[in-house]
Fold this sequence. Notes:
The chain is mainly alpha-helical. The chain has 5 helices and no strands. It has one domain (8-93). The protein has helices at 8-24, 29-39, 46-59, 76-83, 86-93. The protein starts with 7 loop residues before the first helix and ends in a 12-residue tail after the last helix.
Amino acid sequence: MKRKKPTPQMSVAAHKGIALALQHRMGTERAIRRARAIESRELMDAEEVERMRSFFANYQPAKTGAGWGDLASPCPAWVVWLLWGGDAAEVWSKPRKRKAKHVKP
Length: 105
């Protein structure tokens, strides 16, 4: 798998996550560093994309928790979700199904 470039929507989510993490003292240095790379739209290798996909699969249930989407009092899970690039990154990290080529008989 070749390296992938994060989308502008992922960059916006990561930027928001960084701001919330710093304001509310959440997130690890590693998470902030990764978010800065996403925010800058640096290319990501296949291993990092797979970690991202795994993260989103594991954190999906947290989306219904208290503080999700609350800018004034965000839950840590939402902040980390944003640091990974948010909903746009969740979709982006999933493997794409190839379209079958139509072969003429």
